[in-house]
Amino acid sequence: MAIAVLFLPEASDYIAANAQASLDLAVPQASSPFVQGLRAAAKAHSIAVHVGIHDTVLGQEADQPTRKILNRALYINSDGMIQHSATYDKLHVFDYGALRESATVQPGTKFTAPVDSPVGRIGSLICFDLRFPETALALAQPGRSSPWAARPAQIITYPSAFTLRTGEAHWETLLRARAIETQSYVVAAAQVGRHNEKRASYGRSMVVDPWGKVLLCLKGVADAEGNAADGAVEEVGFVDIDLDELERVRREMPLQRRTDVYPELTVV
């Protein structure tokens, strides 16, 4: 089986035990051993990689009291090169319960244009962005004034690290909704299992087709302690992206927006 693109979760480089550790572990993308290792592996195996990482904020010093980091998605092509035009910083930070991402993460300020890949045009979003349908629509069903109106996303990515509580309640529902309303493939590689004494992730990495059918769902955790459901939780899944099927769905059920009644989605 020839693999064209590997999709990895949000924060694939690390998930820290507390806010200070998260800040301390961040290193500039250009010198990150994790990123450089992925680049080398992508080139060696001729596989593109879409991955969530942390990065430092340009111009902020390590001892700066107010410093923050970036929650970032990278696209590394099969030559091992980072396509910087496709780099995306998470727009919506996650503040729920004891988790306060806003304490450490500086939100992004813009979308990035869908990037061409061997499996289709990829539009990048991250985790909590999943709850904001406007973001996926702006990438896959953009308004006429959008810079990528003629080249909309065919695949929306949500590298994620959902909690057990939010995952059980909302994960599959939200992913299927985003796929259906944008008529796109949704690829959601998810962190899974226990990371440290304070944090476990829900898992259940998923791929959904433009009709809302779940094509792949990997295993997840069974409880808040990060215990596995149905055996081991670290898995790799394989899915074929059928762009002919995507075009068929979009052609047979065109989304004719009433922009005479409600605003057109624009990107600033």
UniProtKB/TrEMBL annotation:
Q: Note the Gene3D superfamilies from the entry.
A: Carbon-nitrogen hydrolase
- UniProt cross-references to PROSITE patterns, sorted A to Z: CN_HYDROLASE
Give one Pfam family.
Answer: CN_hydrolase
Alphabetical list of InterPro entries matching this protein: C-N_Hydrolase, C-N_Hydrolase_sf
Q: Which residues form the CN hydrolase domain?
A: 1-243
Q: What protein name does the entry list?
A: CN hydrolase domain-containing protein
Organism of origin is: Trichoderma gamsii
